[in-house]
Write a structure and sequence with these properties.
By secondary structure, the protein is an alpha/beta fold. It has one domain: Rossmann fold (3-Layer(aba) Sandwich), CATH 3.40.50.2000. The protein contains five helices and five strands. The strands form two sheets. The protein has a three-stranded parallel sheet with strand order 3-4-5, with helices on both faces. It has a two-stranded parallel sheet with strand order 1-2. Helix 2 packs across helix 5 and helix 4 packs across helix 5. The longest helix has 15 residues. This is UDP-glucuronosyltransferase. Pfam families: UDPGT. Its EC number is 2.4.1.17.
Amino acid sequence: VVWRYIGEKPETLSANTRIYDWIPQNDLLGHPKARAFITHGGTNGIYEAIYHGVPMVGIPMFLDQPDNMIHMKEKGTAVILNLNYVTAEDLRDAVNTVIDDKSYKENAMRLSSIHHDRPMS
């Protein structure tokens, strides 16, 4: 698990989690071992996840984020969680769902293929 986090390292941090002040998100999503992307649903992050075919867990906050994540859910590439009610168990279950249910990866790869299939000028 790679987590962009600014602040004091949480005491309950799992041994398999690395935290960084800054991460080149597009490079991270392009890594062959990227299996899921936890996102607020901003446009840039969604386009980067689509480009690389990475399924998403969305926790939208405001503006365009809820609509963006609804579109991704409708396309079968994302699970949405409600920021006001999400629990640790909800987050764990959502991440496991997009990783274990292969349809999320298949749908993300389908969108990636569509995104890459553009005329060149």
